[in-house]
Design brief:
The complex is a heterodimer. Chain A contains 21 helices and two strands. Chain A is mainly α. Chain A has a two-stranded antiparallel ribbon with strand order 1-2. Chain A is globular, with a radius of gyration of 25 Å. Chain B starts with 14 loop residues before the first helix and ends with a helix. The chains are: A mainly alpha, B mainly alpha. At the A-B interface, helix 7, helix 8, helix 9 and helix 20 of A face helix 1 and helix 5 of B.
């Protein structure tokens, strides 16, 4: 049906009918489980009379630390969902051999692998980086807030809407089954006529806008709000990594927006960008999505590199080796990441010259990455290394990431790639770098900054157990996949013949996933145990690890204004130098009055309306789409009309708060 | 006149320049968005699937008139803010009103061209070339509409509250936005209409 006709003839509920609510037993149980969890939360909050608190202290807060914590909560729960997806796929693969066809139908299996990739990349990894940017960046650059506090809240809510639409697709309708990058023509209207792909598009589109706004916000924050003395070459390495990540976000996310926009125009208005007839060009989509997608890979891993730089220097009690080379290595990666996208589809047949160029660029990008690995190792060399959990994550990263990185270089050779393209070898490669690099980095950062965020340390022993389960689990889950890939097993496989002899390797991989699940169990236990025994592990000094950067110079958790007095950074590792020069700690400094942002509910409202907008566009309920769009515009105009968005905290009030915290710490 | 520029004790906390710098960064991201659409147009502009080509469809003098109107609107928008803090409100409103009018005429011309094409049976559903044409020009048009809406909202705010620093900051952003849209139009005119007219 043509687009305009669809609009004119649409029913009041668009494409939404009762059939959308009908699911098979497995899908229904997930949906019902999610609903029950929500009902439980609502009842619990009502019973505890916590709605008011939740609304005022959290949902409408513009405090970057609180927004960061909310990101971490959403991203952590999504990690759980993504891992369950992964476990379901591996379970299917050991059950579906020869005459047996496993427990998942093919369409459901397709939705699971799509949801797994989408969840892990967009809602776990992107959520985690946004969360950690929020919490750490202003603290590390000695600022009281981000450049645009309201925009920050809005970004968070748009991100959450993306998560929300993904979850709604579990209950109403279905999710996309076309893989996490949704190649047309399969994702076009002709081959995927139902709402799955639309859910995928709008979920990414809305959360993508949130990411872009985060990118702009933190870019300005880093450029404009560093404390006095902190020149660019004195910034902590994490800030350098974040800054480059933000450049990547600013240059790549608009491409995603445009690409998904064109795909949805194909689907909604009957256009022919990527269809296989009427002159459409599906390969254009593949080029565009990877022109975003490859930088996206580095958007995820650069913050992890930044975290490792902090962790390694702190726990080796040594300054980071090769600071300047590290900065240039990050910048080189940032630049190169935009000219390697074609290595995702050497098999497109662009010709030997094009393939050779992109292959060589891909190999070249391994050089700055190698520089970074050696710099970290040289930082540890002759340092006084404390083998805390973050350092363990780092060592695990070096091993697994290097394995993944080296076979990445292998696949940069186009003829080799022709053999292993879309095989499990590729899956093993990018999971080695994504889990070994990104996730391990995040876990290192989580353990490292946890006391700064919450005021007490995580239990070390349980953290170690979790690490070893993860480390051996990931190896067990993915080393067999390299072998399977070379044997010819393709990705997204839901059934194979017994004569292939693949079963034992799939069984080892499934065992690896089980081990990872045990690791996650330890992490959940670690969190609960540490909360229960928080008094024992309390961090009174604000500097539990003998840290080097400014975030450790304030309290743990920091007061809402971060720093009573804006620090002065005269060197790299500013706090380390301050301590060397006999820093006396916080005292009766001459406080001054400051301005802090007031709470605003408009972020929540715009988020809710965007959710309605996304849902309406998925189901072609055009009146609702128009209505929510108008309401969003109204919210923006309301926000633009508010001129008193900040309040003043007087010097005497700040002194009172500081004294109060001091007193609390001594009891 | 209500609020004065706020005095911040910490010197690095300068809200106005943050906003303008942030808006620059936003414009650069928007530039990338248009870049993706231009790239797609460049790839698909010959994929007419047997339908008429750009040469047969577009009317160069008409697009030139559009371009000139937008150029003049860019000028009037710039004039609105010359010597702004000390300028009578009415003069600013006059220039902004002229900008709005020219922008609206431009938008009307764009829509009339769309109508002409569609009435001749050349819709965005006809082929890949027209899909990318309508999307590229339409995205620019949506930006113009957003700009016109901003103009109206800011003008109302200015009339109600006077020329305070908040309004000035917003108008500065609007001016940047409007000039940016003209810049994008230069590329559109060159790549779509001039090259297409060959």
């Amino acid at each position: 049906m043509s687009g305009l006709a669809a609009i004119q003839t649409s029913d009041i509920f668009g494409r939404l009918t009762w059939d959308a609510f009908k699911h098979d037993a497995i899908e229904a149980s997930v949906g019902v489980g999610t609903l029950l969890l929500m009902v439980f939360l609502i009842v619990f909050l009502t019973y505890k009379k916590r709605w008011h608190w939740l609304w005022n202290e959290w949902l409408t807060s513009l405090d970057h630390k609180k927004i960061g914590i909310m990101y971490l909560i959403v991203s952590g729960s999504m990690l759980f969902k993504g891992i369950v997806d992964a476990a379901m796929m591996r379970a299917q693969q050991i059950l579906s051999v020869g005459d047996s066809f496993g427990y998942l139908s093919a369409p459901h299996y397709q939705q699971i692998f799509t949801a797994h990739g989408t969840t892990m990349v967009f809602f776990v990894a992107m959520g985690f980086i946004a969360g950690i940017f929020n919490i750490i960046v202003p603290l590390q650059i000695g600022a009281r807030d981000v450049a645009f506090p309201f925009l920050n809240s809005l970004s968070f809510w748009l991100f959450t809407v993306g998560v929300g639409l993904l979850m709604v697709s579990l209950m109403i309708g279905n999710f996309s089954g076309t893989g996490w990058v949704g190649y047309p023509p399969l994702s076009g209207l002709k081959y995927s006529p139902d709402v799955g792909v639309d859910y995928w598009i709008w979920s990414l589109q809305i959360s993508g806008v949130g990411t872009l706004l985060t990118g702009i916000n933190f870019f300005v924050t880093i450029f404009k709000m560093r404390c006095p003395g902190m020149t660019l070459m004195k910034m902590p390495m994490f800030i350098w990594a974040v800054l480059n990540t933000l450049v990547l976000i600013a240059f790549s996310f608009p491409i995603l927006t445009a690409t998904l926009g064109m795909l949805s125009l194909d689907r909604m208005l009957g256009m022919h960008f990527f269809t296989s007839d009427f002159g459409g060009n599906p390969m254009m989509y593949v080029n565009l999505i990877w022109a975003w997608g490859h930088p996206e890979v580095y958007i995820l891993v650069l913050p992890a590199f930044g975290i490792f730089s902090e962790v390694v220097a702190t726990f080796s009690s040594k300054r980071l080796f090769g600071y300047v080379s590290m900065v240039w290595a990050i910048a080189a990666i940032t630049f190169l990441s935009f000219i390697v996208w074609l290595h995702h589809f050497f098999t497109m047949g662009a010709g030997p010259k094009v393939n050779a160029f992109f292959g060589i660029m891909t190999m070249v990008i391994a050089i700055p990455t190698g520089v970074k690995i050696f710099n970290w190792l040289f930082t540890m060399y002759r340092g006084r290394v404390q083998f805390t959990t973050p350092i363990l994550w780092f060592l695990g990263f070096v091993i697994i990431f290097t394995i993944g990185g080296m076979d990445g270089v292998l696949m940069a050779v186009a003829p080799v790639d022709f053999q292993v393209h879309n095989s499990l070898f590729l899956i093993a490669h990018f999971h080695s770098v994504a889990i070994g690099g990104v996730l391990f980095g995040f876990f290192a950062g989580y353990t490292y900054w946890f006391p700064k965020i919450f005021g007490f340390k995580l239990d070390e022993k349980l953290g170690e157990y979790a690490f070893f389960c993860w480390f051996f689990g990931v190896l067990a889950a993915f080393i067999p996949l390299y072998v399977l890939g070379l044997m010819g097993a393709t990705r997204r496989l839901d059934h194979y013949d017994a004569s292939t002899g693949w079963f034992p390797l799939f069984a080892i991989a499934a065992f690896g996933v089980l081990l990872v699940l045990v690791g996650i169990g330890f992490q959940v236990h670690q969190l609960l145990y540490s909360i229960k025994h928080r008094r024992k592990n309390r961090d009174i000094t604000g500097d539990p690890w003998n840290g080097r950067t400014l975030e450790w110079s304030t309290l743990s958790p920091p007061p809402f204004y971060n720093f009573a007095v804006i620090p002065q950074a005269d060197a790299r590792d500013a706090f380390w130098e301050m301590k060397k020069e006999g820093w006396k700690g916080r005292g009766d400094e001459p406080y001054e009055e400051i301005h802090m942002p007031k709470n605003s509910p408009l972020g929540v409202f715009i988020g809710g309306l965007s959710m309605a907008l996304g849902f309406a566009l998925v189901w072609h309920i055009f009146w609702l789409a128009a209505l929510s769009l108008l309401a969003i515009l109204a919210c923006i105009i309301v926000r633009l009309s508010e001129e008193h968005t900040e309040y003043t905290l007087s010097a005497s009030e700040m002194k009172r708060i500081e004294k109060e915290i001091e007193k609390r710490h001594h009891t | 006149m209500t609020a004065h520029p706020k005095k911040y004790p910490d010197p690095h906390h300068d809200v106005a320049s943050n906003t303008i710098f942030g808006f620059w960064v936003y414009l650069m991201t928007d530039c990338v968005l248009f870049g993706a659409l231009f790239a797609t147009y460049a790839v698909l502009h010959n994929s007419t699937y047997g339908g008429p080509t750009a040469h047969e469809l577009f009317n160069l003098p008409f697009s030139l008139a559009e371009s000139l109107i937008l150029l003049v609107s860019s000028f009037t928008c710039g004039m609105a803010l010359v010597n702004a803090p000390n300028k009578p409100l009415r003069r600013i409103l006059l220039w902004l009103g002229a900008t709005f009018l020219l922008g609206a005429v431009f938008m009307g011309m764009e829509l009339s061209e769309f109508r002409r094409l569609i009435s001749e049976g050349n819709t965005w559903e006809s082929n890949a070339f027209l899909s990318s044409y309508f999307t590229l020009i339409g995205t620019h048009g949506l930006h113009i509409i957003a700009g016109l809406m901003m103009l109206v909202v800011f003008a109302i705010q200015m009339v109600r509250r006077g020329l305070n620093p908040f309004i000035l900051r917003r108008l500065t952003c609007l001016k940047m936005y409007w000039n940016f849209l003209y810049l994008i139009w230069i590329f559109t005119f060159t790549i779509v209409y001039l090259i297409g007219a060959k």
